[in-house]
Amino acid sequence: MTKLYRIATLTGDVPRYPRRAMIAPATPTERYQTISKVAEQLQYPPHILRFWESKFPFLTPVQRAGGRRYYRREDIALLQVVAYLLHEKGPTLKAVQSRYKDLGKRNFLR
């Protein structure tokens, strides 16, 4: 279980058995993960992750030459929270954007 899932379970913010899989923490050898690998783990198509990047300016994966995206652990944690809020809690994109703006990065992940 990830730290995010444990915290959410203790506070009652997440159902006991979420519909979508939570990502296990990356091993030290997997410091950066490609968009296809992250999309597979989150069970969303890559175009959805790209769309979220366009709507949420705080989602900024590292882009190498040629435009290939590499996600860090903190990027994946942010994606998990966004996915949970949009598909489990049900607020709009604008509501998630304002929540991030109000709480900041550290509190948004809690």
Q: How would you describe the overall organization of this protein?
A:
55% of the residues lie in helices and 6% in strands. The protein contains 5 helices and 3 strands, in the order H-E-H-H-E-E-H-H. It has helices at 3-11, 35-42, 46-55, 73-89, 93-108; strands spanning 33-34, 62-63, 69-71. A 3-stranded antiparallel beta sheet has the order 1-3-2. It is globular and about 35 Å long.
Which key terms come to mind for this protein?
single chain; 110 residues; mainly alpha; 3-stranded antiparallel β-sheet; 5 helices; globular
What average pLDDT do the residues reach? 78
DSSP summary: helix tally: 5
Care to count the β-strands? 3
Radius of gyration: 14 Å
Give me the side-by-side strand order of the main sheet. Answer: 1-3-2
Low-confidence spans: 14-18
The helix content, as a percent range, equals 40-55%
How far apart the termini lie comes to: 15 Å
Helix-strand string: HEHHEEHH
The chain-level structural class is: mainly alpha
Percent of residues in β-strands:
5-15%
Q: Tell me the major beta sheet.
A: 3 strands, antiparallel
This entry's quaternary arrangement is single chain
Principal-axes geometry comes out as: globular
